Every structure is written in structure tokens, then in C-alpha cells.
């Protein structure tokens, strides 16, 4: 089966993700059109070579990428389909189940829409932080519905391939559970830890080493975007965060009780943490062979 | 006031910290003697040039460094003083208040003992992981008691200086509160997060990026040593961990409730986490100017 090569892509949303993939596609010779509620973001993206501003009378693109925060995806998708902006559509939101339900309720054309989530980011956000290599080697989750048209699926798979990412296909619920574990819960835990530092004395914070810096690094991410993401994956994140909180409450209680029971409880969680860390490195380690050996003063 | 230069130091405990400072001192021309319950650790340290095995008839050293886990410090200190191994004594344990109380009760000579804690470490532990530059630029907390002899204080300050570290003097309770904030709570939180990964499916873990790797990195630390450290700083760690757990429970509850209240609660903690992270970088950032800009895919 031959599949059409992408020739034109419209990116709606010129933030970190949208502009990064626009840069990547432009460098592959694809005609990229850019749209964003903020004209300055479009101008900055265009100035960086990510594409040209979307013309009002542009013909339908081979693919439209909705690169907005989760809460805007369905509105933007619906409107783009109503205007006939493309022959296929995808998004890049970090939560999938709720968006799919909203898209069904709203009456979006689900044959032409393949929900997507590139698992990539940076400590920085916005158009200026975009880089074309952002997705290289990273997972890109696709959650196509049962009625999706093969040509739409092929167009989105070609997007993933052009970005150098690795496609993983799974249902929206499986996506949401998985990212709650590997991304959303770590974010909220890092944030809760970092929040304790807001009122700490500077001379206390000055004692911190690489351990605290590493553990709180992702807490510097965009609060507005992450509030949107977390509330769009609320049930899965809540369940996972409650498990972490329950273990912490148990540890605090054991530490207050003291004695042998304390050592057994604390030692037990430390060992389980060791196993979890080892499982993570086993699953991802080949991509980062130096990880376990890097210097981490605590 | 002239102070004597260190000429001889005995290090009891050839783990990461003891061997690292022995290597540093040996390279400064100081005669270092090594002792450890494990003869293989002494032999490995000696073979790496950290010093010579402690001779049974050695004259008293200018300084004895007790580099054992917290639970062994007072026994080792008491015995070393009873044997007259040195003219001054320090330790390197990461908890100070309980050890001080135990040293008082045991009848250790408090005039010759300056409790210490070099705030340095690595992802690895043990003799083989030692490196002489481990303490360069790092804080080294000293908690001298009211009866300490000036010569003992001077000897320990010279040790800190020779290791290239920066001395911070504070009471044991202030030390314990500070390290609960910047080191012990982050450790337990990272461990609780990593523990959730122990039974996760490998194909889920394979989706993880740098965010989860950074957030759980310190969970790979030595479980036995850290159980000892955390139980020796139990009240301060319990209080701090309870605050993190309470925020996580609040977030989970808000996520389950949904609606506008949820966005306000989650957004509020994300903003406070942002402030905490900024406060940490403000307090430590000059030492790590690239920190905020390093790539952290989530």
C-alpha cells in the first residue's frame, strides 16, 4: 500500500511543541503554515524558519496539528474542521481520554482525527525555546479511534517519523494511566516538594546540593500549562498521587513512633525505591547509559 | 593566634566520605591512618593512596575522623577516645542532635569533639567510589559544643579548609532542621515516588523522560545508610514529610472534586512550587549557572 507523502502541514499553536515540530518539518522541505492567537508568536516562529503565517485563503493542508494546551484542543479542532483547514488532524496534548470524550460530544469528525502526544519537553517553554531535534528518539503516543481513516493515520505516522520519534499506539485510557505514572505524578510530587522551599531561609537553601536540584527540576515548568494538563488527567493522577502520599504518611508515622518498627518501615520503602529506580533504568537505561553513574551530591 | 598545622589524621570508616577525605589529606602531605571493620576496605583505600593501615602502636593523631554511619558514631568515638587515638575528634554523620545527646550520655570527652557534616555525596557509595575532590566548594557544617577546646576546633576547621569545603557553624538542632529540608525530605519523597515504579510495566516505564529520571535519581542511594540517617533525624524529617504529604492529599482531593476549585488549588501549588524552585536557584544558582537551562524532557 502506498501512502501519500506529506507536502503541507498547518500548525495551530506556536509554543514549544508546535514550533519545534514546525521547524523540523520545514527543514524536511514541507510547506508549513503557522497560526496562533498571538501574532508575535507566529512572527517569531516564521522568523526562526518554522514556516509562513497561515494565509486566509490557503488550500487544505495534508495535516493540521493542533498544538494548544489540552483545554483548547476540541474547540480549535472543531473550528479547523469546520473551516476545512486540512485533510487530517492531530493534537499534541498530554492528556487524551477527556479530550476524546469532548471531541465525540462536540461532533468533531473522528475519521480524520488521530489524537497524539509527543513525550518531549524542555525546562523552558514558548516559541523561542523551540528546537527541531526536540522529538528525536522520544516516544510519541497515538490513540486513533475505531473509525479513523487510514490516510489520516498514515499522515500522522509520517509526522512522527519525520520528527525522528517512535510511535506507540494505545487507547486513551492506557495513555492517561501511563503518563500519570511517568510524567504527571512526578510533576506534582516535585512541585509539592519545591513548594516547601518557597518560604525557606536562603542560608538553609544555600546548603542544598544536586539531590534537591534534580528532585525539583521539573517544578520550574509552566504552571498554567501544567494546571491544564493535570486537571485533564484528574482521576489517574489523583489515584497515583494518593499512593505516594499514603507512603509518605506511613513513613512520617513510623519516624515519629521510632524503634525497630521504624527502621523496618523506612528501610522497606528505601529498598522498594531502589527497585523502582532500577526498573526505570532497566526500561530506559539503554538510552542513557551514563545515568546511574552521574554525580549526585545530596 | 597561631594554630597547629595538621600533620597526622586517623580516619575510622573507609566508605565514600572517609576515603575521599583521606585521599585529599594524603595528597596534602598529611600522614593518614585508615581503620575499618572490613580489612578489604582498608586495603583498597591504602592501595588507592588514601593512607596506611592504622598501626596498633601508633601515637595519637592530631585529628581522628569518625566516618561511620550515624548509629555507630558514638560507640566508635567513645572507644577511640578511651584508646587515646587522637588529640581531637570529629565525625561526618548527616544527623547531629541525637548523636550529641548520645555522646553526652555516654560520657565522651566533649572538649575534644567537634561534630561535623560535609554536605557532599555521589550516586555511588563505598571505598571504590571515593574521590579527593568530593568536598570542593561544598558546605561542611560544624556543630561545636560550648566546652570545645580551641585546638580541637582549629584542627577540624583545618580539615574543612584542606578539603576545599566551606565551614558553616550552627547548633545541632538547626543543622537537623536544615538538612531535613534540603536533603532528608527530598530523599524520602524521591524514594516514595520511585517505589511506585517497582511494579510498573516495563513498556510504561520505557515512556519516561528526563523528568522522572531526575526526580528519582537520589532514590538509588544506599538504603542501609539512609535508613540510619533518616531514623537519626526522625522528628524533623517527619514534620517536613507530613507537609509534603498533606499538599499531595489536598491536590488529589481537588483533582477528584474537579471544577473551578480544582484549577485554583492545583494552579496555586504549581505557582508555589515555581517560587520554591526559584528560591532554590537564587540561593545556589551562582554555583550552577546552567542549571535552569538544562534540558529536561518530561
* Biggest sheet layout of chain A: 6 strands, parallel
**Percentage of β-strand residues of chain A:** 5-15%
Strand order of the largest sheet of chain A: 3-2-1-4-5-6
Shape of chain A: elongated
Query: What's the assembly state of these chains?
Result: homodimer
The number of helical segments of chain A is: 11
Low-confidence stretches of chain A: 286-298
Number of domain modules of chain A? 2
Q: CATH class of the largest domain in chain A, please?
A: Alpha Beta
- Please name the fourth-level CATH homologous superfamily of the largest domain in chain A: NAD(P)-binding Rossmann-like Domain
If you average the pLDDT of chain A, what whole number results? 93
Distance between the termini of chain A: 56 Å
Provide key terms for this protein.
homodimer; 298 residues; alpha/beta; Rossmann fold; 6-phosphogluconate dehydrogenase C-terminal fold; 2 domains; six-stranded parallel beta sheet; three-stranded mixed beta sheet; 11 helices; 50% helix; 11% strand; elongated; oxidoreductase (chains A, B); PDH_N (chains A, B); Preph/Arog_dehydrog (chains A, B)
Amino acid at each position: 500500500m502506498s501512502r501519500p507523502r506529506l507536502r503541507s502541514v498547518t500548525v495551530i499553536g506556536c509554543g514549544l511543541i508546535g514550533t519545534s515540530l514546525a521547524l523540523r518539518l520545514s527543514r524536511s522541505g514541507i510547506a508549513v503554515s503557522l497560526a496562533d492567537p498571538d501574532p508575535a508568536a507566529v512572527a517569531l516562529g516564521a522568523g526562526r524558519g518554522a514556516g509562513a503565517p497561515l494565509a486566509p485563503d490557503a488550500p487544505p493542508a495534508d495535516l493540521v496539528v493542533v498544538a494548544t494546551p489540552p483545554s483548547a484542543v476540541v474547540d480549535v479542532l472543531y473550528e479547523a474542521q469546520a473551516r476545512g483547514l486540512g485533510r487530517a488532524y492531530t493534537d499534541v496534548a498530554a492528556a487524551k481520554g477527556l479530550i476524546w470524550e469532548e471531541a465525540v460530544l462536540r461532533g468533531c469528525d473522528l475519521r480524520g482525527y488521530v489524537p497524539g502526544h509527543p513525550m518531549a519537553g524542555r525546562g523552558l517553554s514558548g516559541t523561542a525555546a523551540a528546537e527541531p531535534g526536540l522529538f528525536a528518539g522520544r516516544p510519541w503516543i497515538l490513540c486513533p479511534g475505531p473509525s479513523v481513516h487510514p490516510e489520516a493515520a498514515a499522515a500522522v505516522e509520517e509526522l512522527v517519523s519525520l520528527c525522528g520519534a517512535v510511535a506507540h499506539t494505545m487507547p486513551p485510557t492506557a495513555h492517561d494511566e501511563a503518563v500519570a505514572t511517568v510524567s504527571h505524578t512526578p510533576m506534582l510530587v516535585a512541585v509539592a516538594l519545591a513548594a516547601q522551599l518557597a518560604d525557606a531561609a536562603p542560608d538553609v537553601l544555600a546548603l542544598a546540593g544536586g539531590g534537591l536540584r534534580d528532585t525539583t527540576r521539573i517544578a520550574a515548568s509552566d504552571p498554567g500549562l501544567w494546571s491544564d494538563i493535570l486537571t485533564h488527567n484528574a482521576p489517574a493522577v489523583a489515584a497515583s498521587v494518593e499512593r505516594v502520599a499514603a507512603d509518605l504518611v506511613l513513613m512520617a508515622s513510623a519516624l515519629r513512633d521510632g524503634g525497630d518498627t521504624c527502621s523496618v518501615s523506612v528501610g522497606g520503602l528505601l529498598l522498594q525505591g531502589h527497585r523502582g529506580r532500577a526498573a526505570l533504568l532497566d526500561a530506559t537505561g539503554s538510552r542513557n547509559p551514563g545515568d546511574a553513574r552521574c554525580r549526585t551530591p545530596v
